[in-house]
């Protein structure tokens, strides 16, 4: 076996660790992107019968952005397995109970047709904020870019406002009506 073939084979079955920041991202668009890395379909030697997917670490799942009225209108189904165990939960309620669950369900449902999706989901690590254990962070070697740019907050413009001249000085107790 030549050195090139050895390296290609090594790359085929090595798990690369990817980081994805879910802040202000639509979980349904993000799920398609994350699925591509979990299954390994972005690799040139991908085959459905081989398990060549990678690990994906998702941070800031607490700050996802659902489009339109999805927070109030989207419903998630759960069944306990017992008679009468069916329940439907609104998205905002589910997100309040577990901030990682909406993104986890979106990724799971985006892998339709994958017979190994329960096994593949074990390679997905979702954290509600940026606090990731150090032993996981030392494995991460790649960043997955999101579809949406994160907008700047109003407080980040405070430093730039000093550059422009002030038109009027309002008193401290002044309120606009």
TrEMBL record:
| Protein keywords | Ribonucleoprotein, Ribosomal protein
Q: Which range is the signal sequence, renumbered to this chain?
A: none
| One Pfam family from the record | Ribosomal_L13
User: GO CC annotation: what is one?
Assistant: mitochondrial large ribosomal subunit
InterPro entries per the UniProt record, alphabetical = Ribosomal_uL13, Ribosomal_uL13_bac-type, Ribosomal_uL13_sf
Q: Spell out the family assignment given in the record's similarity comment.
A: Belongs to the universal ribosomal protein uL13 family.
Native species:
Triatoma infestans
List the molecular function annotations (GO) for this entry: mRNA binding; structural constituent of ribosome
- On whether Acetylation is a keyword of this UniProt record, the answer is no
Q: Does the keyword Repeat apply?
A: no
In Swiss-Prot or TrEMBL terms, this protein is called Putative mitochondrial ribosomal protein l13
Write out the GO biological process terms: negative regulation of translation; translation
Q: Which PANTHER family match?
A: LARGE RIBOSOMAL SUBUNIT PROTEIN UL13M, RIBOSOMAL PROTEIN L13
